[in-house]
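pasting input
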Amino acid sequence: MPGPVSPRLGIATVCLSGTLDDKLAAVAAAGFDGVEIFENDLVVSPWSPEQVRGRCAGLGLTIDLYQPFRDFEAVPPDVLAANLRRAEHKFDVMERLGADTMLVCSSVSPDAVDDDDLAAEQLHTLAERAARRGMRIAYEALAWGRFVDTFDHSWRIVRRAGHAALGLCLDSFHILSRDSDPATIRVIPGEKLFFVQLADAPRLRMDVLQWSRHHRLFPSQGAFDLPAFVGHVLSTGYAGPLSLEVFNDVFRQADPYRTAVDAMRSLVVLRERTAASGPPAVRERVRVRDLPPAPPLSGFASTVVAAPEPAEVANTLRAMGFRARDAGTDAKLWTQGAASVLVRATDEDTARVAAFQVDSADPAVARGRAERLLARSRPDGTVAAPDGTAIAFTVGHEEGEPGLLTGIDHLSLAAPYDDVDQTALFYRSVLGLEPEPDVEFAAPFGLVRGLSASDPDKRVRIAHNVAMLRRGEWAPAVPDPQHIAFTTVDAIATAGCMRDNGVPLLDIPDNYYDDLDARLAPSRLDELRVGSVLYDRDEHGEYLHFYTAILGGRVFFEVVQRIAGYTGYGVLNSPVRMAAHRRLRVEQPSRL
Amino acid sequence: MPGPVSPRLGIATVCLSGTLDDKLAAVAAAGFDGVEIFENDLVVSPWSPEQVRGRCAGLGLTIDLYQPFRDFEAVPPDVLAANLRRAEHKFDVMERLGADTMLVCSSVSPDAVDDDDLAAEQLHTLAERAARRGMRIAYEALAWGRFVDTFDHSWRIVRRAGHAALGLCLDSFHILSRDSDPATIRVIPGEKLFFVQLADAPRLRMDVLQWSRHHRLFPSQGAFDLPAFVGHVLSTGYAGPLSLEVFNDVFRQADPYRTAVDAMRSLVVLRERTAASGPPAVRERVRVRDLPPAPPLSGFASTVVAAPEPAEVANTLRAMGFRARDAGTDAKLWTQGAASVLVRATDEDTARVAAFQVDSADPAVARGRAERLLARSRPDGTVAAPDGTAIAFTVGHEEGEPGLLTGIDHLSLAAPYDDVDQTALFYRSVLGLEPEPDVEFAAPFGLVRGLSASDPDKRVRIAHNVAMLRRGEWAPAVPDPQHIAFTTVDAIATAGCMRDNGVPLLDIPDNYYDDLDARLAPSRLDELRVGSVLYDRDEHGEYLHFYTAILGGRVFFEVVQRIAGYTGYGVLNSPVRMAAHRRLRVEQPSRL
């Protein structure tokens, strides 16, 4: 659990899947202070508003907002009367819930007219009705509002209405999706900000309504500068909750307990980033004293492969030039240069990269930071990432004898596609990594998305490559494979030696080299072809790499040579690798 | 298999999932005449081009196009030299493949300049190189081309180049996504059209490149007027293949045999629609004599529910007022008015709507049409829909004794989300139904999409309601439930009688009626509330409806009263129904 938080943190029930019962329990378990009750969640619930109120109180949650109330303002008198009747019904519900703030979205109704004075006058009437019942109205400009679609327009109307029970709700999505300048939030007095909703999103060039309804993300998972946004909000003196409102197709159908924890982690990270970028007054308000910065990393100390038949992995490592020593009753540690792999048995069906150890400047601090970021601690002193991998922190590690391989270049892990944004945020925030550009490519059995991140010195690189859809019976390889990439200073020579030593290396088709010749015409094409070594080039340098077969049904090794600061992972070659792995499976089905 | 086809029908390998081997086999099995070889499929394949050529010949497939060649034209001399070198490498591959036409896409390269004369001159050079090897170049304007992004611009350049081996490739997506007028295709001489690619797509307001790469659909599954497009193409005298090029995230990872059959069905439907809308010359060219029109329908004759415990379903039907008679050794036919349900045992885990019978003006013709549309025929004389439901055609049916229920209003079936567009097209084309507007709504466990279609007289309505994502462990009810909706003339009275008779009806929460009062204030609110009858209203009339519990883990019944021509299905109430079903499951887990 994170430490004491200021300001208070909330979440809208619409972010989560399940019944209202499920949602409230998950929200409380993740440590939130309050909730926004989304109307539809109440409408389908058998709990009376009084029962919901009691349940929230029992869980220690405040009901910070009732939402949404739509299509109210700037309408002819008969429609106004009907809308006020509708509002009074909702005030009844709020009274029973014990909720005092109602969200009113700017109108999208064909009944509405473009008349700010009329909108202000009618909102004044609504606020007056609310005030009589001890309630207040938070008016929000939807990015697709019919006439009011920017927050400064909604602010002009609220100012014109001039009622103490009428203020603004600001939603980061509606503001940042339109490229409105959030710095102008600072002109709004904090006491007129009644509510603030936070959502991140990827930059998509699409209809803003569809973008909003389907593709919102939790903070730090998208492209919006939320630390700056929150800094502006807090600068006004706003003292209400920071509340997540994230419409996302995946979260709507995922385990709400898991989603709520991911949501809370994203707010803890946002708090840290806001403090780092904001002025002193903001820093004080967001209090991150309980979250120490990530200590610098100097590389991977070791990785752990758990395999149902460890001998297969061990034999491959031996043939690759690793030397073994015992590391416990049923495990061996294989080392070569700075590369180190511990192999142990598992009773799971397939092999996996079960754990890794990083060299940290301060392991105790690193572990404390992970716990503050809601990492699960395990009895063996490691922390568990959401993809199931265990992470340990150490200071320095013993090197093996020098050989063809010199160290570990990167780990490529896997996570279900639906979890990969949250998983990537976990790794970045816990280890202090910077994201690298996302990639997406078409592989023989569907699209694959690749996310990666590295520490500033490029000593710890972690990638996740995940199938974007895998819903049918057809596509193979569930779950996605994982791999460990070792470094060498001469990929062609290393491939030759390893092949002579019987390492099960992937054969790459002639067609690939014919195409490579047409595209890039590398200088040592024939040697690449003979060695089944793949090739890529970027604006910095070159990348030569090759792969082993898949071991234990899931894990393989890569050997890479980076020349002159090549920054990528040879992703264009991934489909070639995948097709080659698939051939081995078909030809040697026992490997499945 | 469809009958003889003119023009020839083709498909690009990029439409399908798997290796080149998988794709070619699936294409041939679905009855296509030819393929476009997508370069990446060849690059990752261990088969030499000669082996691919032999395989296609063995399968009776011609290789109609090699694609794509990118970023060729309107570049400085040094880039041109490199591009020509690259092209010659590809001509080598095509020679080995036995392919004579190469697709060249309009450039998106930063090296290119905006100079039509230069583009024409360089394409002339390329065409000359191709011609020397007996090949030709089909130039295509990408909708996101840097300078050439409309087909009429590509035509100006091809005309200016004036080389016999240089012609156009037209792709319906690139043309219709930009709202270009396809009628102007008619100005192009047919012999300068070297290739025509077809793709449909939903109307999405988003970046055209992303739209194209992820959301294309087969013809008649999207919003484009492809019959008109094909009519214009054929009017030019174009005699090449109509070839599908559909980039779709789902098809990329789905069983290619299934996808290829769906693709072929969509072309058969397109042929019929083109003939129906085109001038006589076009009608003659697309030859649909082997596909009879769908005979008119006059209603559902019966439905078949297969249940692991038929007694549960039978008892419910009895309490709903149905009377039974034996219908074979282990089945009973339950009738009431024009409603008829056959209940039989199954050894499957859950109940399902296994079959239905429609009253057709000509059952033999209807069945012949289904077979022409690649429906699988079953030994019992029915045809199988892609969702597994069996369909039978009959003339007239015996009615049961009159009762509270008067007939069948609609069936709500289910299909995996990935298959639902193809499944819906199957029902529409086989039964001659017209699509109704799609709906999408947020349910407690995720988004749901609803598709429906009906015959022109609204006597046969078939809906599919499917979860849009269901990839985790959390969301319940896999597969989606199915239901049969019966008609009544008085839903409130019927609900009262049925409740008294012990029918397990769903209880609807008070919160729903409070909200209904606020929203629509129906006249008989208290009676609706007491009877747990749901309510909706549209511009025509009203809809009163209620539901039973889920029987056999999957099937439930609805009773509906349509007043004054209400056209919908009460979809706004679906989340209320789903939450209520979920409560019953939690409270009575044995029902799962």
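fyi Chain B touches chain A through 67 residues (CB under 8 Å).
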